[in-house]
Amino acid sequence: MDRDTTKTKFRQILLTKKALSSYIANLAEQIKTTYANNDKIIVIVLLNGAKRFTDELFGHINDEKFRLRYLTAGSYNGAESGGKVTIAGDIGDVAGQEVLIADDIYDSGLTLSEVIKKVEQARPHRIRTCLLLEKQTRHKKKITIDFKAAVVPDCFVVGYGLDYNGQYRQLPFIAELDLADQ
Ligand code: IMP
Ligand code: MG
Asked: Quick one: which of 128, 62, 48, 64 has its CA closest to 94?
């Protein structure tokens, strides 16, 4: 992408690739330490947004005791949270297990709270949460975030797995999208 395209589509780059990689490496260390005494952790990755950062995160951790499973969760349409959360996929048997739910961003909290509700019904031993980003906004649902890489201001961000109508996921940085320019 050339500089002019970047200038018109994005208001600002909030997190560079270098910053993200260092935050994710740091997150990997925190997670390893927290689960040092556990021998099996079911990680539920919420697609599509959390795919990229969890690939990197669990590449760092590089330990087979983390068992990755995938669910598709979403409520967004463009830059508007639809309010109704849809969850697709099978979490498998998590009864009595350590569960770590990983998502891309904590915005209203609706998505995560619905996923947590669904996982709780399957009676795990404990649920922790791991986020690439927390948006500085008034969360509609308060959720305990156990691990997070970075905080972003209350704006619409894209890149590193986060999209706008399926676009910009592949960007190697997190940028504020200029919605007026879409
Ligand atoms: P929540 O349910 O409002 O917390 O939103 C969580 C989901 O909405 C995330 O998993 C993202 O997929 C999406 N989302 C929220 N804010 C943004 C954003 O700024 N950019 C891209 N996707 C977002
Ligand atoms: Mg998502």
From this structure: 128
